[in-house]
# Entry
Amino acid sequence: MRRHSSTGSAIAGLLVASLVGACSAPATSPSLAPVSASPSATPAVSSTPAASAEANASASAEPTDDGSSAGSPAWTEAAIFEADDGVLLVSDVSAWSDGFIAIGHAWTEGPIGGGGEPRIWTSDGLTWEETAPDFGSDALELAGILPLSGGGVVVIGNARAATTGPKARAFRSEDGVTWTELDLPTEIAEAGDVRVASGPIGHLIITPDEIWYSADVESWQQAFVAPSGVTFGEPAAGDEGFVTWASTTGSDPMIYASGDGVTWFEGTTSVGLFRVAPWRGDWFGWGFVADPPAMTVFRSANGLDWSAAGELADLVGPDGPTYKAGMDSEVTELTLSGDGGVLLATLGWNHCCAQPPRGVATVVTTDGETWLPTGLPEDAFVSAIATDGSVVVAVGHLERGARVGFWVADR
# Structure
């Protein structure tokens, strides 16, 4: 076990309450009929994410001493962990009953074709500790975190293709150190390649072609099966429900949304969306626009109807890194992560699928319109953020996986 204490007074005086407040408009149903749910599903009154109110006034972008901008959360380094050998990545973080918990993987030969073992990091708000949990197999790659309202946490993982037995596995812990395996429905365990999302409405496990919902992680129900030719992407959970993008063959890109995790609505998008993230009652995603070539951020009030909300220059300014089609592009991908009224975007560069991306820039918005520099290290690639209502934590890797970092918002 490795321990790292936060530097300075990173936690003291954190003011995130101003970021957490949200004023949502009354729920509105889309003009789309619900797609078929399982016979056991009991739809809630509102079955699609509610629309939020208009964004607040834009914040000032005056730079501060730490490299962030006035009106932006000021981030302080809380912990750095070095890779022992190979590549160390952190993929998700969540608040839970004992503070914060993050998951990742230590690769001995890189994410493609290399071995390694899972990693867990836990924090009480002052100190971060790293452990290598005993899940009975080093070949398990953790996919996501499901915090439990009554205390404790569940992590879901995918077994590597070369292993035998279940392809997806679940483990529960009350302290983040000792783990007990839980049984998953056979359809989930045998499918593998699962992705998860967790929020106030409940929990999702998504296989490539099925959506499963649970209110308590104890029992799961199949909520939706993908139409032929549709493959689900990574889901997102927000205050108003769930959204997941999907890839398709021979048709327009699809998007799916639910207000209760049980009844799902489908819509189409003009471009394929990636990495959808919640922001208060709204949703943000991004995609590539072909003519002219551009990386564009999109916004939706209900998870189904999307409109352009800005291009790369709107995030990083006219002098920031640019996107071009082909190998000359300074940016090749973008991640979005939102929680508690904070939405953070990381611009990344990667032309080698055997290596993790290198961070190019990180920006943040608290009003949904104005994007401001975070002041994080330039090569930081933030994979996720989380808040417990008082503290906002950002996690990601540095130097393409030579180190992982944990930062807290200090305003």
